[in-house]
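User: My instructor asked us to take a sequence, write out its structure as tokens, and then describe one feature of it. I'm not sure where to start. Here is the sequence I was given:
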Amino acid sequence: KPAGMTSHDVVACVRRATGEGRVGHAGTLDPMATGVLVVLLGSYARLAAYLTAATKAYDATISFGAETDTDDAEGTITRSADVAPDLMDAACARRVLDGLLGHSEQVPPAYSAIKVGGTTAHKAARSGDPLELAPRPIEVLEARLISVDAAARTWDVAFTVSKGTYIRSLARDIGRACGSAAHLSALRRTASGSLTLHDTHTLEEIAAAGPEVGPLLADPVHALGLPVVEAAGASVLVGAAIPLPGGLDLPQGSAVAVTVDGRLAAVYRAAGSGLVPAAVLLTGGAQ
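Assistant: Let's start with the prediction itself. The structure tokens for your sequence are:
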């Protein structure tokens, strides 16, 4: 995704280019952000819930000295604070980032797509009556310092985080934890689950391919990153339960990718001693 576009804008561009009416995405990126946005075409749109749940990786720039109402550079400054010289010491930055690792709770940005009682947070914030958003559980799996720019008063950081983690909020909270103020000034998503920047294509490439976009599509089995079970097409087509293969020990409710002749046909979930359908893509004997 290029900067300056919403995730919805990207979906609209792909829909126009390909002529496919069923287009969705997994994991919203803010307009300022760039990088990996997983777009789902046709029956693959049914996989959104599984791909959205994947961990995400980002390269982020955190700017110190000011907070904004959006927690990023596109917002209005709401608070300024001094930046102690120690904050621009790499050893200090690493200590702070190490303290983020693991499970915690995070208050989402006031300007977000979260809904409370049917009201969207960013709409309420723009109307001058922001919602009180409850903290949400998150996990930071990696917070690695890339560099410090003392002149610009910024940290460049590589994050790997769980679903629902706002990097904007991490930037805000880092500033507060350091006795200063901070906001996110640049963000690039480098991975969404098993899909990385190496798997991506530009909107220009998609527009050039048009309806013949098939060769640009990522392998859906690889994208899902789930255990794989091969099954008979006749069973999957009618949404029948299938036995759990011997040697495959799955927690109840966990998902698997079901293939027919090596191609993704469905997502099933473990139930009892077998597997039951959750999202069937196979229709009429073919994908």
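For the description part of your assignment, you could build on this observation: The longest strand covers residues 136-149. Try explaining in your own words what that tells you about the chain.
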